[in-house]
Design brief:
Strand 1 and strand 2 form a beta hairpin. With about 110 residues, the protein is mainly alpha-helical. The N and C termini lie far apart (about 90 Å). Strands 1-2 form a two-stranded antiparallel ribbon. Helices cover about 75% and strands about 5% of the residues. It is rod-shaped, with a radius of gyration of 38 Å. The longest helix is centred in the middle third of the chain and has 60 residues.
Length: about 110
């Protein structure tokens, strides 16, 4: 994103400067301005299209991963609720069917 924003500024600065500039002790001549070749433009457009496709695929992947995670959370919750319900049924069933430890001492005293 930063490179794309700076590219037009760099090109405008490069086109405005007609004289050479010096880098340290070395004098650099300006390059001759040429139009980009059709192959270069085609390659750049293909690169941009691939980049956009990559972004779209990443977004799609994120959506699918979120849906999958949501489904897994729902499945875990359902399994947990089912397990808790089974434990409650088991506890209530064992309480009504057994005499319980407190009844053992009462039975021993009565004999």
């Amino acid at each position: 994103p930063v490179g794309q924003a700076l590219a037009p500024l760099i090109e405008s600065l490069a086109s405005q400067s007609s004289a050479g500039f010096s880098v340290g002790q070395r004098f650099v001549e300006p390059r001759i301005q040429r139009e980009a070749s059709p192959e270069y433009q085609l390659l750049n457009s293909a690169i941009e299209e691939a980049r956009l496709n990559s972004i779209a695929l990443e977004e799609r992947r994120n959506v699918l991963n979120e849906k999958l995670a949501k489904k897994e959370r729902k499945k875990k919750k359902k399994k947990k609720e089912k397990k808790e319900k089974a434990q409650q049924i088991e506890q209530s069933g064992s309480e009504s069917n057994s005499t319980g430890p407190s009844n053992y001492s009462e039975m021993a005293d009565s004999e």
